[in-house]
Amino acid sequence: MSILLRLLLAHIIADFFLQTKWMVEGKENGGKKSILMLTLHSVIHSLMAYLIVGEWSLWNIAIVIFVTHFIIDWCKIQFRGNSVSAFLIDQLSHVAVILVLWMTIIPSNVSDIIKQVQEIFPDNIWMIVVAYAMMLRPSAILMSLLLKRWQLSSMANSSLPEAGKWIGYLERILILTFVITDNMEGVGFLLAAKSVFRFGDLNKVIGSDMDPKSLIDDLIANDIEIPKIFMAVGDNDFLYNAKDIKTTEYVMLGTMTSFAIAIIVGLLVKGT
């Protein structure tokens, strides 16, 4: 089982950490550059698998990983897959290859394979390493694809560069740690803290030109109909425009998706 988890870890590192943006763009541009980038990417995969497995006599691992990864990624490029389904099919194809490769490396009879699976507990450290690796770029890419249909263009310039990405990394790592260590109350505390920081910004408008009371007074003074979109906060009714509502809903979708991924992976690790 240790070899299987090492192969999975090598795949995650090579596919999500060592594959740069210019390599992805180069693969999708077509022509000779696409073939060159595919070759380079596949070589990195094969080398990572060979080095992390650490069984130097199993040099055929590198060859199988190189050939299969090249073919799978080439097919994805030909179909120009950039959706959740394409991402999942691509990753499941790579995992299927790794499973088949693993079953040919260890003794091939069924009883030995079952025995290897049952020996997962001594190798639980590899399961945890894989889980933490999944909390970073793999889950971030999956989330971006899931939330793509609701992407708000106005949010790009309203925060620090890549701040959201790193906040997501940290929160998923914390949640995974809380779940694995049986500290589920920490998940609730993290959600509450994020909500306070996120929605606490609403209080900054008090006393400013955007103070809801001032806005309502101005509308009444100018005999303008008051919009029927409000947000109740304490004893006050705050004007809340549609753009703010969409932003809040998008943030909540992202938060819930991030929390769900981390909790599910954590529960799966605990269940093994």
List the helices and strands and how they pair.
Layout lengths: L1 H16 L3 H8 L2 H23 L6 H19 L5 H22 L4 H9 L5 H11 L2 H10 L16 H18 L3 H16 L12 H10 L8 E4 L2 E4 L2 H30 L1
Antiparallel strand pairs: 1-2
Helix pairs in contact: 1-3, 1-5, 1-7, 2-3, 3-4, 4-5, 9-10, 9-12
Question: What are the salient characteristics of this protein?
Answer:
2 strands; flat; two-stranded antiparallel ribbon; 272 residues; mainly alpha
Account of the protein in words:
By secondary structure, the chain is an all-alpha fold. The protein has 2 domains: 1-120, no CATH class; 135-272, no CATH class. It has 12 helices and 2 strands. It has helices at 2-17, 21-28, 31-53, 60-78, 84-105, 110-118, 124-134, 137-146, 163-180, 184-199, 212-221, 242-271; strands at 230-233, 236-239. Strands 1-2 form a two-stranded antiparallel sheet. α1 (2-17) packs antiparallel against α5. The longest helix has 30 residues, at 242-271. It is flat, with a radius of gyration of 24 Å. The two termini are 12 Å apart.
